[in-house]
Amino acid sequence: MNLDDKWDWNDKKLPCKVRIESGNPAADDLRDRLREMGMRLALENLKNDEITTTASKKSDALRKKTIRLDSDDAIATTLSSSNYNAPALFKHVDDPVLGPAAMNINKRFLRVPKSPPRKIMMDLQKERLIRTGTIPHSSDETKKTSKSVVKRRVRNSRKAKKQEHELATESIDSTAVKAAQQIFKPYTGDLFGSSGNYMNGMVYLSRCARPANPMGGFSGWEDNMDQVIEDGSESVEPTVSEHESWEQLSKELEAKVTCASTICAWSKHPANAERLAAEGALDAIMRLSKEDDKKIRRHCASAFRHMSSQQILCEQMIEVVVNPVLNELSQTSQDDAISRDCAVAMLNLTRMHGKEADLVEVGAPIALINVMNMHENLAGVCARGLFNLTCVDEPYQKIEHVTNSFLNLAESGAATLEVKHICASALCNLSDLKSMRLRLVQDGIVKVLGQLVRGAEAKTRRVCAIILQSLASTKSCRQEMVNKNAVQVLYSLSSDNDANTLHYVASAMMRLALEPANVPKVVNEAGVAALCNICQRCPDMPKTTQPCAAAFQVLSRTDAVKTTMVSDGGCVAALVTLLRMSKDPNTLQFSLLAFCNLLTNEENHMPVLKDMGVLAIIEHRKNTVEGIRESCALALFNLSCGEQCRKSAVAVGAVSAVMEIAKLDDAQAKMRCAATLCNLSAEPLNISKMVEEGVIPTFIDLLMTGEPETVKHCCAALCQLAMDSDSCQKIVELGAVPHIVAGVETGDDQTKFSCCSVLSALSFQADCRQKLVNMGALTALINLAQMEDESTRLRCALAFANLSCEPTVQGVMVEQNVLPILKMLSNSYSEENQMFVAKALCNLSCHVGSEKKMLEQDCVSSLMMIGMVRSVHYLTKQVCAKALLNLLNEDSLEQLCEEGLVSTISSFSKLSDEPTMRICAQVFNVLSSSTAGRAKLVEKKAALFGLLSLLKSSVLTTKVVVGKTICNLLCNLDSQAAAVAVGAVAHLEKVAMLGDDESQKECARAFFLICGNHDNRQMIVNVRATPPIILLARSTNPDTRAYAIKVIGVLALHEDTRLDLLANNVITWLVNITEEDIDSDLMAVVAKALCNLSLVEDYAGSMVQEGVVSALMRIQTKVDNGSVAHLIANCIRSMATCSETLSDMVDDGAIELLGLICNVPAKQWSESVLYDASVACFTFAAKSESLRKELVSRGGLKIVGKSGSFESCYDFAVSIMFLLSLNSEYRSAVASGACGELLVKLALQDPETTMTQNCSQALFMLSKTTKSRDSLVEAGLPAALVKLCKSENDDIKNSASQALKNLSSEGGDGLEEGTVSALIAMSEGATDNSVSNFDASALVEPNAVGVDTGKFGLSDSELPEKFLGSFSCLLVTIVKEGGGDAPLTKGPVGPPAPRIASQHVPHKPVVDEEVDQKNEDDEKLEKVMLYAKMNVPLEFQGDLALDEEDEEEGEEEAGGDSKVERIEEKKEERQELDQQEEKNEAGFKKTSRENKGVPMSPPLPVRTETPEKPIGPKEKQAKARRKRRSMQAKKKREAAKQSGGDSDLSFEQQAQVAGLY
């Protein structure tokens, strides 16, 4: 950050050394300062007691040594003797006992927000260090001191300052004077001004940086003085020039004071704002503020305050980032007036609209917090500044710093009522920002609000209620709010007498209850009690009663809390109060619906009856408002569902109320009345009373309506217990069914409808189905099904569906020709009708033996028509698929296919329903297991695509079935091509990745069976199925691994698929698998794969690097019968084509492996193995000399010796021996043993070839060494050389002749024969044909025969063609599944059981939710803040710093009496301004909330104040002075308005006129 360049950092840094005994560096530093102060005061006291002033420095030092202040008590005693408040000072030295989360020094309000920017952290650290050294005085103690104490302190302070000044003047050092002279550079004109050399350059000089050793203070002099006293040196008398320098410094200081005071005075007038902004006054004040002079700082602070009230200067202050300067000035000055001016200036800065983000970025919140922590009396000003940062229309960057500041401030216990209200107002602003609400809740605003409402004023509690209502209006915040105890906060607010507060509490509670997860906590945490409190306080205010009743209605929806609401919450009394005292229709409607919900729980019936809830409901039976009587009918019906209260309900008049409500012209209400009477008639004791009240005519009237639902309930009531599961058996046994059947034959249509309803209702009882069939119910239902009434036909279909669920009835239904009736009933577009018919057909298809008859009666076409055309619901299609699967078998397969089974199942397979997908997969599997089925599948590509689409299922069993079906299609030649064409190979790869062992095995087998075809192999490569195949080869299942390895072997065998294998890192896997314990046959397949892959020259080097040589070694070890020797030899030969990796091959043991396989090759592969080994060894020898050495040391000569067994190896054996003979170290090894004999043998052969030339050259090189000559002579070398000398080839002849010459030489192993003669001949220029030596270039390289790939082919057991004919299809086990019975809630069934009806409570939407939704949609179009930005408090609107300075000067002159007076004046002024603050608060109200019609809150209670004591003459003068200043300011404002209007007003005044403050 370059702190040394920007600020005077070095002289502000504090040493920090932690002492072990204390562990508190701040307290240690303060203790040292106090000890130093005590030492100086003790010395001064001793000097004053001296009789003479001519004492030497040595005696002073001696006295200083005798003064020991080792303890805090000694220091306190010394300071107390000089009129210092020692207890107040040492209060900051004692180590406070703080927790780990509260280790802030001088913490009063809050913690610093987390993770501020780096610059702010540095500033904060600096401010903390500075604040550690301050010695604040408690304002409370000042108030308690007497006037005499104040006077004494003023006198002592003035005296100490005078003595200190005299002592400093006498003891100033000459070096300090010289340094002081360099403070300012020579003044040559004002660089930034436009008026020339004016004001003696004071503004310019004030902007100059301080030197390294400033003279503005006396800290440096004090250090020097102490050092002089300690050293005992003589004092230095100041010279005349030094006094002149000091006077010059005083003049310069006076110039700075004049500059600061002048700019301060100019800044008071708005007309000077532009000139001050243009000519750099702000920069000058910023520089002057760093001076150590108290007057300069006061003027600077006052200038900052006045500048911040002017718009142009305020904007400039924000641009130049003046906040750190204000923060530093307020923290380091130790002056209350300066801190107040800085705080007011920062407050004015925050009043600028649109600059909030910039202020937060530069650390304005932290600066305000620091001032607040150090000055409790400025808490209101700082809180207002923080509040202004929240007056925005949308969040800005780092607004969370402001949020955290307010949360921590409000959470602290030291906040005053004013600060609490400001905090609540700020949080209200933030809660209006929708995007901030969730963050506020997460940061703990609910807990903060809970602390704010404790002991707060009514207006603050109202704002807290508004905040909770705003937060609750956002759905995402509700659950978090309840988790953070928002309900308890609302409960604490529900006891207020303020109508607005209660409205917002009720609204917030209602919104919190809209979240289902919140309901239990709302009920258990006194949420119901809060609503009850509100209802008791304002039962006749619609704006409040509506949300209360709505909240009760919403809470009562949850079954788990219904009992708690009634028993513990006491909501019944509140609802009764609303029903009896409220006239609002919505309130009544919500209250009745709440009773409807509560009465669905039978445990609540008796408490509701006892608390007069039923009577309150009955009282509204004649209410003409729409919806009221309907809700009463529903509530009474739910009450009638409880068996225990039916008698009590009739006793209180429920029957007459129901009869009254039944007269409504509303079908729904009539239906509920019929159901209620049906339930009440179930109680035997009620029958007589109901008849007496005339219920039978009501039944007749209800039956005459012709409404199916009403008739259904009436029929149930007349039949009494027809829908009671416990008595259904008795109803059938008592013979009611024949009468119902007779009614079907003889009655009118209405009777038939009712009878059909009863029969369909009885069909739900499983125990009654067989008896119903025996009593002729099937015949009656068949007759009823032929009616034209759709509801009746639907009931018949429902009854058939239920009856067909009984296995003993299924055969009877088929025999009685129910199938044609079902086919007829399916001719409808009613979804329920289609569902019931499909269920009936599906249930009947489960009957074994009925499949043929169902096919003959064309049931298949009906199922296909329902599933393909008429039905749209997935469940209906699922039932149809089940029925088709039940009918599918070997005998019916072809017929079903002819009727379109394949197309139907293909259509069903597109559904996303998992059971349907499973059934379709099973059908496809059955079809794929037969030749005819596969033929039909191949004909329709759509069917194949449908099959493949089933792999999107999330159920593993379905995917497994699909995988088996795909394997069936791929592994049969009649469907293989078609399946490959539609992408079955790619989907087979997905099946292989399912993780099912059986599926992986079948997939591996399928890959193996199809890879024999060229097109299939290309498809495998194209769909990238190679990686899954490699993965299958790693399976722990031996069959899966075997098939996968064979697939890799086949792919490696063909040149067109090798590259794909190599690209997918198959080499790595093949190398790894050699380490595992697998069958020798599979190991041979691996060896063949490696051998075939090594033929790709581009990958030879990478194979070596992957460790193929080591893998071949392991293969040879595990398969030691010689059957893989030719594969290993060829693989090594192929990899040797890469010259870069030959050394790696040798290091991996390639030569040893070659020697090993040459020992035990199979007879048919002996020549091939030796040939490939010879070629590989030749490649090694021809590469480099180092590899030749490795070849000899690793046993390569044994391979060369064995190669003499086959003529095809001669050329490479001779070439290897020639290359080895070039080095004398290897000649003896080459000449001895089989190699030497082979070389001599080959030299005697005819005819002569290139091999003969290489042989003669090798013999020549070997003849140069004695040991090699001896070995060759024993092998017959002379005869061979004689023969070669007769050759017509000159090269052969010369080599042989030279070799003969070497044989005749008797030299030792010194210089080789011919070396000297060759050297002489070269020097004389003679030439001859003699040969003296050869190198590797003389070798005539032999030509290698190409690799015969035929010997690497797979055996019959490894080829897929041999297994295609033996594949057996994979078939899954199929169990017939029924369609099930009809659900109780489907179809126009008979009179429902009370429990069913009580669960179907209609829901009336909450009105406020719709309003909230509309408001949220319009939020971006119109945004109105709850509060405008706050102005500076009235008590801080004077010229604070300068006024106090004048007062202090007056105190010095008057002896200090005015200080006590000023304290009393502040107290009185504060009391006078309370009422003005309350008036200003009227501007805080949000206009939008008044527009919503929210009633204004009742007036706050009048504050009672204790009578004031009689004031003295001084207090009267101070009061008169304040009134005079106030009148003058008022006259100035009025004059400005009359003369110039708003344009001439200051920025602050214009803002006030505009209503911003």
UniProtKB/TrEMBL annotation:
Location of this chain's protein in the cell: Vacuole membrane
Gene Ontology cellular-component terms listed: vacuolar membrane
A Pfam cross-reference name: Arm
InterPro entries tied to this protein: ARM-like, ARM-type_fold, Armadillo, Vac8
Compositionally biased spans, kind Acidic residues: 1408-1418, 1443-1455
Keyword Membrane (UniProt): yes
Biased composition (Basic residues): 145-162, 1519-1534
Keywords assigned by UniProt, alphabetized: Lipoprotein, Membrane, Repeat, Vacuole
SUPFAM superfamilies: ARM repeat
ARM repeats: 1276-1304
Biased composition (Polar residues): 1546-1557
Keyword Lipoprotein appears in the UniProt entry: yes
Record GO biological process: nucleus-vacuole junction assembly
PANTHER family assigned to the protein according to its UniProt record, in alphabetical order: VACUOLAR PROTEIN 8
Family of this protein: Belongs to the beta-catenin family.
The protein's name in its UniProt record: Vacuolar protein 8
Organism: Triparma columacea
Lineage: Eukaryota, Sar, Stramenopiles, Ochrophyta, Bolidophyceae
